[in-house]
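Me: I hope this is not a bother. Any chance you could explain this protein sequence and its structure tokens? It all follows right here:
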Amino acid sequence: MKKKFLFLLFLLSLAGSGLYLIRRDKGAVESVAISKTGTKINDIAPSFTITTVEGKEIKSSSLRGKIVVITSAAAWCPTCVKEAQEFAPVYQKYKDKGVVFITVDIDPRDDKDFIQQFQITNKTPWHYTDAEGGKEIREKYSLQRFEITYILDRQGKIRFKDSVITRGHRLEQEIEKLLSSPAN
């Protein structure tokens, strides 16, 4: 009887150790998954190259060490105008603090002149790309509609994603979190 009890105790301890190892391994798998490339929060942001409406080529690799705000819009879209106007003071506040803004105009009908007029009218002097110059980023970030916003940290990880109009105060809060984070 005592041998059976010790044997059962031994089996239970083995089972417990096995569960511990499974949990530990599961945690390791989860932490690897967090570091994958993708478009979810905590993913490493997909690399991209854009050509701005001014003809300047920007590679995502050149933006490492900066906080990057990526938005999708169309120059004729009233809610995109509202969002751009909300972003303008935030851009002014952080443009000299290592924060870069990129807007991808996803409508292929919006030509460079139309987009540049939008920038002047709405006082949004940051980087804009038209649908063709932003084709790679549109595809990789699934920018198929307006008012999608991503914020990438200095290491190129996605730390914020919004699929509706992002208000200026919310954008500012997210940027402040990244600026004040010691890991950032």
Notes: The chain has two domains: 1-34, 49-180.
